């Protein structure tokens, strides 16, 4: 018991020291020019990119999740693609000026950023968060996932070495080497931490939002993919299988359930099989359900990021090396329906829809189960249908005719390359954006006067007490007007006007 307590104390002390160093380094970093910052960021991106495969192998070995070749691609997106997307942004001093409105915008960093890293994408997320922090003159202190401490820290060491050699102050990149939930929570509440970037489980994200600090957190991504009747089915099936099997389904934007129009169901199943999908029969489905969710409503962590062969062995199903993922036809959706959950593994539920309206209902129910605000994928040749889904679905990203997993993080689309995907208010997040450098900046605005305004002095306008009307005078005016009408009932306009002017003159004195 004593050893555990000592370890917790060490973790807290280490965290405090990392934040202290980060704060001091960030204060020095404030004086750096845009050119100096950009030089450091490029050096870090190049070093990270060069170590993409080595760190991918290390991540797979430590976590037991995913595919090294696929994690290499993630690392490349988290380093080179992120760098390319932010390299030309102004993040120091005056960053924008509107000469017409005479407004000048000035960039200011948050300060020290606390970054929570997931076990599913440990090294790529470490690269990504470090780059956007350095680009915006913030310091960063990272809390790795307990199951990915070594590979995450190694990724950070690569970044730190490159940054310091390029002229960055030491301590700008810090980390927690002890796996301690208490230290992580204390980090998020530390008075010298100014922003939290939380990518991980729901508990940690909630802790980030309840820390009292500005925070970017992300929700789950129970992503539906709809194959609409006009889709290029051959191409769609190939993309969906590629996307779902990418790193064994560990990206939160990976498709989790297929919804297919009834009149193309048969050919879709054929194409899925051609691409390596194993269609479970009813008995196999029942066995797989117990593997997916031994406890109702909760996904078995043993299947996350694991190979089809490993999952098949747990379910007692014999497969060969050609199998890339499992598919089971499903009709129900709910916490007690294992195939309808976010599985983060190469396992699909497949639902049949009578038409696009039923497809919308199925997608909405799946998102309500645990993916609101995240992403939705659609394969269609009818752009009107794609836009209809984009307008109506409660998600922040709609991926059309592409791999959802890689497309959502900016790999196959024009979206900002990012390993932290906001879910907007649909998912309880502050933003629906792909988080990038601009989210780590305060923008100050200097505004010149461009409009003239006349400010009246006190007493200029009459008060209600000044405008009280004498009832007797009013009665006299009314009688005079009536008398002027004569027997014909016609009003002498000139005489009435004179009388009204006399009244106005009287009450304006």
Structure description:
By secondary structure, this protein is of the alpha/beta class. The protein folds into three domains: 2-218 and 438-447, Aldehyde Dehydrogenase, Chain A, domain 1 (3-Layer(aba) Sandwich), CATH 3.40.605.10; 223-414, Aldehyde Dehydrogenase, Chain A, domain 2, CATH 3.40.309; 465-507. It has 17 helices and 15 strands. The strands form three sheets. A seven-stranded parallel β-sheet has the order 10-11-12-9-8-13-14, with helices on both faces. The termini are far apart. One of its GO terms (molecular function) is oxidoreductase activity, acting on the aldehyde or oxo group of donors, NAD or NADP as acceptor. This is Aldehyde dehydrogenase domain-containing protein. Pfam families: Aldedh. InterPro entries: Ald_DH/histidinol_DH (IPR016161), Ald_DH_C (IPR016163), Ald_DH_N (IPR016162), Aldehyde_DH_dom (IPR015590). Residues 14-275 form the Aldehyde dehydrogenase domain.
Second rung of CATH, namely the architecture of the largest domain: 3-Layer(aba) Sandwich
Backbone shape:
globular
Going by helix content, strand content and strand pairing, the class is alpha/beta
The residue ranges in which pLDDT falls below 50 over 5 or more consecutive positions are: none
CATH structural fold name of the largest domain: Aldehyde Dehydrogenase, Chain A, domain 1
CATH homologous superfamily annotation of the largest domain: Aldehyde Dehydrogenase, Chain A, domain 1
SS elements, strand count: 15
Distance between the termini: 91 Å
CATH class assignment of the largest domain:
Alpha Beta
């Amino acid at each position: 018991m004593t050893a555990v307590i000592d370890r917790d104390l060490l973790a807290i002390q280490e965290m405090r020291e990392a934040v202290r160093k980060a704060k001091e380094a960030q204060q020095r970093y404030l004086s750096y020019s845009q050119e100096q910052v950009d030089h450091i960021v490029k050096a870090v991106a190049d070093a990270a990119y060069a170590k993409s495969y080595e760190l991918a192998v290390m991540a797979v070995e430590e976590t037991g999740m995913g595919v090294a070749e696929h994690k290499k691609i993630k690392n490349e997106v988290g380093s080179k693609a992120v760098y390319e997307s932010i390299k030309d942004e102004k993040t120091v001093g005056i960053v924008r000026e509107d000469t017409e409105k005479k407004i000048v915008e000035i960039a200011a960093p948050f300060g020290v950023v606390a970054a929570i890293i997931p076990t599913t994408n440990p090294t790529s997320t470490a690269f990504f968060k470090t780059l956007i922090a350095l680009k915006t003159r913030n310091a960063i202190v990272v809390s790795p996932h307990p199951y990915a401490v070594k590979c995450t820290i190694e990724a950070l060491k690569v970044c730190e070495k490159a940054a310091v050699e390029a002229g960055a102050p030491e301590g700008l990149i810090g980390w927690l080497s002890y796996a301690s939930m208490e230290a992580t929570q204390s980090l998020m509440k530390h008075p010298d931490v100014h922003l939290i970037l939380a990518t991980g489980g729901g508990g940690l994200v909630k802790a980030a939002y309840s820390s009292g600090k500005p925070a970017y957190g992300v929700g789950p991504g129970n992503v539906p993919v709809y194959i609409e009747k006009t889709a290029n089915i051959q191409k769609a099936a190939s993309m969906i299988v590629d996307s779902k099997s990418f790193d064994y389904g560990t990206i939160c934007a990976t498709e989790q359930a297929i919804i297919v129009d009834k009149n193309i169901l048969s050919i879709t199943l054929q194409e899925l099989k051609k691409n390596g999908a194993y269609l479970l029969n009813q008995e196999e489905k029942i066995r797989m359900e117990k593997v997916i969710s031994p406890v109702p409503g909760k996904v078995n962590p043993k299947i996350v990021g694991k190979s089809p062969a490993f999952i098949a062995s747990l379910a007692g199903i014999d497969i060969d090396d050609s199998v890339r993922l499992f598919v089971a036809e499903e009709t129900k959706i709910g916490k007690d329906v294992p195939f309808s959950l976010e599985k983060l593994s190469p396992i699909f539920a497949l639902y049949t829809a009578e038409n696009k309206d039923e497809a919308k209902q199925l997608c909405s129910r799946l998102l309500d189960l645990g993916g609101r605000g995240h992403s939705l994928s659609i394969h269609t040749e009818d752009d009107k249908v794609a836009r209809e889904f984009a307008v109506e679905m409660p998600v922040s990203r709609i991926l059309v005719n592409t791999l959802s997993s890689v497309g959502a993080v900016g790999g196959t689309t024009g979206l900002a390359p990012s390993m932290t995907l906001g879910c907007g208010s649909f998912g309880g997040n502050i933003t629906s954006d792909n988080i990038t450098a601009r989210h780590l900046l305060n923008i100050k605005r200097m505004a010149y006067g461009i409009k003239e305004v006349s400010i009246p002095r006190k007493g200029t306008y009459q008060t209600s007490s000044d405008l009280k009307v004498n009832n007797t005078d009013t009665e006299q005016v009314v009688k005079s007007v009536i008398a002027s009408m004569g027997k014909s009932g016609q009003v002498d306009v000139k005489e009435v006007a004179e009388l009204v002017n006399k009244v106005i003159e009287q009450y304006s004195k």
